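**Entry details**
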Amino acid sequence: MSFLNPETVGIYRLTMKTDSDNFRQSAIQDVIERLKAADINVVIYEPVLEEDEFDGLRVVKDFAEFKQESDVIVANRLNPDLEDVREKVYTRDLFSRD
């Protein structure tokens, strides 16, 4: 599977800032809408969500499963937890800061 033609895109955290729980107005939601419109399978990893779905998308509770299942991972912020899959992470966070 290629980075440019993924079957499954993982969304790592819905929040825009570290230690925030406000994701209702997050810019990542626009990205999610575009992926859904392109008929790309999207899964979400967001530990603060208790639900199994968000906006009709499956929320993966197990982080290792999320990383394995995602061909590409979109992240608002580059987190050290993603270092082992950095080659499949797409982020605008060039300087690793909020």
